[in-house]
Write a structure and sequence with these properties.
Serine Threonine Protein Phosphatase 5, Tetratricopeptide repeat, mainly alpha, 329 residues, single chain, 2 domains, 14 helices, 0% strand
């Protein structure tokens, strides 16, 4: 009995020590100082300028070079919030427009890198709800790639938070994230409704789902406040055109060709439509409208044009490319 008691006592001491160590580690981690955001230096500003030059010209071929330049800035200044977000965007662009290049399995690594950096940017600047939306979208993408249902659901509910914080921007981000799935699936249908809701909140009224008219709301264009993201801007010179191209794709995939035509034609209402590098894609969509449900839903591997925008070579540049040649005539 004394031996048994001594063994019990020893086990209890080990257990107590483990709890104490665990408690100490928790306290040590929680009491560590938070990473401090740092303003961008002149070098960071120069790299940011190169980022926008490449993005606005659709220079996908420059991504690897720019990733290296951004990494050099972050090694010297880890808290540079702007550079962190831009590097995340580069990884997201690399992944999103992967149809441009010969695919290798490791392209999927860009989802993890983008998600990690967007998470970091969101921690450094929690006030920017756009970044939270990007982080949520990349969390869902990474979860899908890894076959991790918990991560997909975590990303989905993070996106709900992002939508609540900035609906004008993140309703579109959320719907776009779900626009590549099966057109008869619940996520796709939710994403489609979120495109309608984007217009509702941008225009300040519930748009008709049967005979929507876009022209009456053109006078609402603004560069101020949260609704600035509803229109074209320096950041997204063809935001309007890209939004309606994607919305038309989603409606066409769902079989709603009347509304698809309306949304495709809405791209032409933009004052900069003639300058849009991807307008040829739009014109061919309209010319082959009746074929789109089958073409967009059954796009073959390697197809470059007849595929939903979110899976295309213009998944990002459809909104952000200001000039230069597109990959498609």
């Amino acid at each position: 009995m004394p031996v048994a008691r001594s063994k019990c006592a020893a086990a209890a001491l080990v257990a107590c020590a483990a709890v104490a160590i665990s408690g100490c580690s928790w306290i040590a981690v929680q009491s560590a100082p938070a990473k401090v955001p740092q303003p961008t230096t002149a070098e960071g500003q120069a790299v940011a300028a190169e980022f926008w030059t490449a993005f606005h010209a659709g220079r996908y071929d420059r991504i690897d070079e720019l990733l290296e330049a951004h990494a050099r800035v972050l090694v010297a200044r880890p808290g540079d919030t702007l550079t962190t977000a831009h590097k995340a965007w580069l990884h997201a662009w690399k992944l999103s427009e992967r149809a441009r290049v010969r695919l290798e399995a490791r392209i999927t690594e860009h989802a993890t890198l983008a998600r990690t950096l967007f998470d970091e940017a969101a921690r450094l600047d929690p006030a920017d709800a756009r970044v939270l939306g990007f982080a949520a979208g990349m969390t869902m993408a990474e979860g899908a790639i890894l076959g991790d249902e918990k991560e997909k659901r975590r990303g989905y509910y993070r996106m709900k938070d992002a939508v609540a914080a900035f609906p004008e921007f993140n309703l579109f981000s959320s719907g776009y994230s779900m626009s590549g799935g099966p057109s008869d699936g619940a996520p796709f249908r939710e994403g489609l409704e979120q495109q309608w809701q984007t217009l509702d909140i941008c225009f300040g009224t519930r748009l008709s789902r049967r005979e929507p008219r876009i022209e009456p709301y053109l006078g609402l264009r603004t560069t101020e406040g949260p609704k600035r993201v509803c229109w074209n801007s320096w950041i997204a010179p063809h935001n309007w055109e890209g939004f309606f191209l994607n919305f038309g794709d989603m409606l066409a995939r769902s079989g709603d060709l009347a509304n698809a035509r309306t949304m495709y034609e809405a791209t032409r209402l933009s004052a900069t439509y003639a300058e849009w590098p991807w307008r040829g894609v739009l014109e061919r969509r309209l010319a082959h409208l009746d074929e789109l449900p089958q073409r967009l839903n059954d796009a073959a591997a390697g197809e470059r044009e007849w595929t939903p925008m979110v899976q295309s070579v213009f998944a990002c540049t459809g909104c952000h490319q200001a000039h230069g040649r597109s990959l498609l005539p």
